[in-house]
Design brief:
Layout: H1 4-17, H2 24-35, H3 41-58, H4 60-71, H5 78-99, H6 101-106, H7 111-128, H8 139-151, H9 159-169, H10 174-196, H11 200-203, H12 209-235, H13 241-260
Helix pairs in contact: 1-2, 1-12, 3-10, 3-12, 4-5, 5-8, 5-10, 7-9, 7-13, 8-9, 9-10
Length: 261
């Protein structure tokens, strides 16, 4: 059974690391090992809904603009083109996620993989923040960002870090990169929710629902403010600072695994 303490701890970890480029999946693997509780599918499903809620609130105006443009088939407007890019970028993410799903899932029980993946995330963050970003997106960019999002299913590879860094390396404007990274996550979050909720009804009676809901609410609140922090760091060209954290975490994890074995 879940306790409020356990779900709140995981909720805080999820809320901070879901948006900051340090890999929420990698940190959740570490946190679960630390507190000794592996949450049921219900918790992951509700976290997906929490993530979706935060994105829709934070980007509500853009989401409404995209929806209106697509319904009117106005693909020449800024919102219409952005909607098309989201659709195009979601294709490689879906293909990678479907093809390598079982392999990526097996990595969640391997802290050594998480350690090396965090090292790779740090390198990507450090290199990307050195590029000048000034231009708008195109279809090739959206495909490459979609590939990066698919690869980020590996625990330790930050989704926001991989998608934003890919755009910065391509010279895309920082604010555009930030916005597109999280708008592109909407179809992925919905897909993850549908996949993980297939046996939800079997789990509701076997977990402490109140404790889980508390953890999810905490995750939403923390997540909203961490998203605002991330925007400021990108605009002020401090994105690379997260690289040092990723490297430190990577070294600690790899060293601990070597000592244990």
């Amino acid at each position: 059974m879940a306790s409020v303490y356990e779900t709140v701890v995981l909720g805080i970890v999820q809320g901070l690391t879901e948006w900051l480029p340090v890999s929420s999946s990698g940190h959740l693997v570490i946190a679960k090992e630390f507190i000794g509780w592996h949450p049921p599918v219900l918790f992951d499903v509700l976290l997906h809904l929490s993530t979706l809620f935060v994105i829709l609130i934070f980007f509500r105006r853009t989401v409404m603009g995209i929806t209106k443009a697509l319904l009117k088939r106005n693909f020449n407007s800024v919102e219409g083109r952005l909607g098309v890019f989201i659709v195009v970028g979601s294709i490689p993410t879906a293909v990678i996620g479907y093809t390598f799903r079982e392999l990526f899932k097996s990595f969640f029980d391997n802290l050594m993989v998480v350690g090396f993946a965090l090292m790779a995330t740090g390198i990507l963050l450090f290199l990307s923040d050195r590029r000048h970003s000034f231009r708008e997106m195109n279809h090739i960019d959206s495909i490459l960002v979609g590939v990066a999002q698919g690869i980020a299913l590996i625990p330790g590879i930050s989704r926001s870090g991989a998608t934003i860094s890919t755009q910065l390396l391509r010279g895309i404007d920082r604010k555009v990169a930030f916005e597109f990274s999280f708008l592109l996550s909407i179809p992925a979050v919905v897909g993850g929710f549908l996949i993980e909720s297939y046996d939800l009804s079997l789990l509701i009676t076997n977990v402490e629902v109140v404790a889980i809901i508390v953890g999810v609410v905490v995750s939403s609140i923390v997540g909203y403010f961490s998203l605002r922090i991330l925007l400021k760091t990108i605009i002020k060209q401090r994105f690379h600072l997260f690289a040092f954290y990723c490297w430190a975490a990577s070294i600690l994890i790899i060293t601990s695994q070597i000592i244990q074995h």
